[in-house]
Amino acid sequence: MTEETLTIELAGHALQLSAGRAAFDPARRSLFVADAHLGKDAVFRARGIPVPAGATGVALARLERLIAAHRPASIVFLGDLLHAREAHAEELLSALRAWRTRHAALQLVLVEGNHDRHAGALPAGFGIERVSEPYRLGPWALCHHPCLVDGAYALAGHEHPVLRLAAGADRVRLPCFRFGARAGVLPAFGEFTGGFEVGAAARAAGEAVYVVAGDRVLAVPR
């Protein structure tokens, strides 16, 4: 499956929204990924909660498709790359090492989120730069926690935004991007992350919302 993209303009700069639940800055060839929470399924199983395996593999496969589609020079993770310290299982670390070997030329930056501080560092040699928020890149202030930053448009994660849609008795919650005048929030990249519903108040305040519907990104009428 190839995820489609939708190009929007924020503060005068182009940003491509991908149905792969990431955003791409074509001017700087940088891919932005929020809240991957890799290893969360393994963490839950380690704590005795019976959840199915495979979520991390699905997320890494989606990341491979994004790299193939956009050919980024860098990936900036907007926090919560790993879910917890128990995510350092050999199966996950082996998959990450293999992924890094395939993409050794990629610059990787991790803007530290709340889970990253507890999950600990990735193995030596993984080659990822850990930075505090906000991380400035061109017109963007890249953060984990949503915030406002003077002189930049802030892009963040943390909230795992979803939009509830209804048609008669049917209900569905879809991952979404949300953008205000000075800041926006990306959907959670991970497969097993839940979501915080975007309320009517945010939309009434003039936020632009784009939902991920299968392999498409669709603008939600205001």
TrEMBL record:
Entry-linked InterPro entries: Metallo-depent_PP-like, PdeM-like, Pesterase_MJ0037-like
E.C. number: 3.1.-.-
Domain of life: Bacteria
UniProt KW keywords: Endonuclease, Hydrolase, Ligase, Nuclease
UniProt KW Ligase keyword: yes
Record GO terms (molecular function): endonuclease activity; hydrolase activity; ligase activity
Enzyme class: hydrolase
PANTHER family: BLR1149 PROTEIN
The protein, known as: Ligase-associated DNA damage response endonuclease PdeM
Protein species of origin: Burkholderia glumae (Pseudomonas glumae)
Name of the coding gene: pdeM
